[in-house]
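A reminder before we start the practical. When you read a complex entry, don't treat the lines as separate problems. The point of joint prediction is that each chain is placed relative to the others, so the output describes one connected object in space. Small molecules and nucleic acid strands, if listed, are placed in the same frame. In the example below there are two entries. Take a minute to note the order of the lines before looking further.
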Amino acid sequence: MADPMRIADLPTPSLILDRRVLDANLTRMRDRAAGLGVTLRPHLKTAKSDRVARLAHAGESGPITVSTLAEAAYFLDRGFADMTYAVGVTPDKLPALAALTARGASLGLITDDPEAARAIGVRGAELGVVFPVHVEVDSGSGRGGLAPDDPALVEIGRIVDGAPGASLRGVLTHAGMSYQCDGPAAIRAVAERERADAVAAAEALRAAGLPCPVVSVGSTPTATFAERLDGVTEMRPGVYMFMDLFQAGIGVCGEDDIAVSVVASVVGHKPAANRLLIDAGALALSQDSSLAGYGRIAAAGDLQVASVHQEHGFVEGASPLPFDRYPVGARVRVLPNHACMTAAMYDRYYVVDGGDEVVDEWDRCRGW
Amino acid sequence: MADPMRIADLPTPSLILDRRVLDANLTRMRDRAAGLGVTLRPHLKTAKSDRVARLAHAGESGPITVSTLAEAAYFLDRGFADMTYAVGVTPDKLPALAALTARGASLGLITDDPEAARAIGVRGAELGVVFPVHVEVDSGSGRGGLAPDDPALVEIGRIVDGAPGASLRGVLTHAGMSYQCDGPAAIRAVAERERADAVAAAEALRAAGLPCPVVSVGSTPTATFAERLDGVTEMRPGVYMFMDLFQAGIGVCGEDDIAVSVVASVVGHKPAANRLLIDAGALALSQDSSLAGYGRIAAAGDLQVASVHQEHGFVEGASPLPFDRYPVGARVRVLPNHACMTAAMYDRYYVVDGGDEVVDEWDRCRGW
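Here is the predicted structure of the whole assembly.
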């Protein structure tokens, strides 16, 4: 029998996913959703993996959220039919979405634009499908969506409800501003705003005689700390699966809850600058700069990737650095600032199960 | 006959490469190298495309530089045998490099570490190959490399020259600090420092009785503005092929010289925030933050992508924004801050030739 493959045998840089940490994160969020009485429709924009999606639903298929047409096609091919495509749709994407629908997907769309809503209804009919549509609500993030009291909300509801190629599924919001919070109390307040705005938007549709079966909210911080979700029917967190230094920084998790890391090799010493060079740089770690630096070295005190070139990372943070512990060729594990960005640089996960043995290899979807 | 495909027909986001601009950039750098009397060994870390590499050599194969093992394998498979792998090598990568060498690659390595040099010599012999090795010189960038007067330089030269599995090819440096320059005069000074340090390192090896046939320098700014390269044998610029807003910002090119852009769709209007939302965000544009914002909208005055989420970009920059000109579904072209980072997010180029007709599709190498 061949020796088992270990992290030390992998090419560097590679992306490591610890299934044990992943399972704990997935279980915790499933329990949250059940406790709050809502459906969990996890956002797969972070993991982009059917293996992870299935584990998120305790081994079954289930409702999911996607951010690209490539993800929609990938997950449909792997048995996930109930999807919400949670990026404002443009008319040119409708033929591809209709083709996926014709192949069996129930593909919910979102829009905050009356013209786009009209196009969905007309093109849906021309393409021979009925697109389920959510009106996108802005609950304070300032990204997509309409304020719950914006008259355009009901206008879009009426356009969709009256169109032969569309059906009104409900309202959807994303409390992106939860990422600017500092700690649970602030996140709880944002979660309540997200809930209240989504429910108010749903009530506005219903008051106009329109159906609104789905009231969808979601972000990992608000899903983690919401105290109640009365009136909400589903939530769509995503990064909770992997967690990252950003989530740890705002109090959503601890560093031990981070399931993904990049294994890199030391490729040089710069004692005069008190730096180690590693072969994970801007491409291997991403350039996410939501935190100082580009990732922390796991189990190494304050060592972090202080700056990056395309294929080089500069490790700094102790004076002097323990160069003897990290000769050229030594390996380090880098915890990501933002798991969505770092994971996106890779085409596969090397899966471990709490240790350093590579027990599996899972593919990922990329592109658009 | 089918209608020709146009940029307006592409899925968004997509990466566009304008062959006409590319050709002009490639010709200019070939002429520079010829005028300076050095070999052009272009760095393919930006383009990662054999089609571009061949055009860089006026339609032929030729010497190139690569930054990953994946690039080395990709280019070898496509007829490029003479490569320099310009990232400090670690011992664990030697078996894969030896396998490429056994398949016909002449794969030059770099190191600035005596222990790594010893490992190359020993492992090369064990693996049945002779690795050509450059000693990496630090000409001021503070990344990899030794100062030209560092005794370790000659020590490494001796280790390599005396090893059965390695041969001393020369010295190599990269004036990364040229990216911090403001304008041609400052870049010229950096180019002279790069040249002088590389030549001094070569002379140090020769004074110790060691061979040093190759003296390699390179960065797009220094290659563009160097006044003389006496004593240098080759240069390795990379981003010159595509150029970008960063190069334009330091005076290396104009915005009209930028050959790559991302085509994106308007997916929403936020008049209260005076913002357009587009479907190109952190993944489609990269998060390179070497400049303010994440890219400029081509032919649109001061409009730029001011901030990004994973799949959304927020366009700002005029007050008020011309919303009527950009309805939901309208398309924009985003010029990249840093072409290497933006191009790395895609698996292909949609090639145009000065217009909006898509005349070809070229693949790209990804990963490590």
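Discuss with your neighbour: The radius of gyration of chain B is 22 Å. What might explain this?
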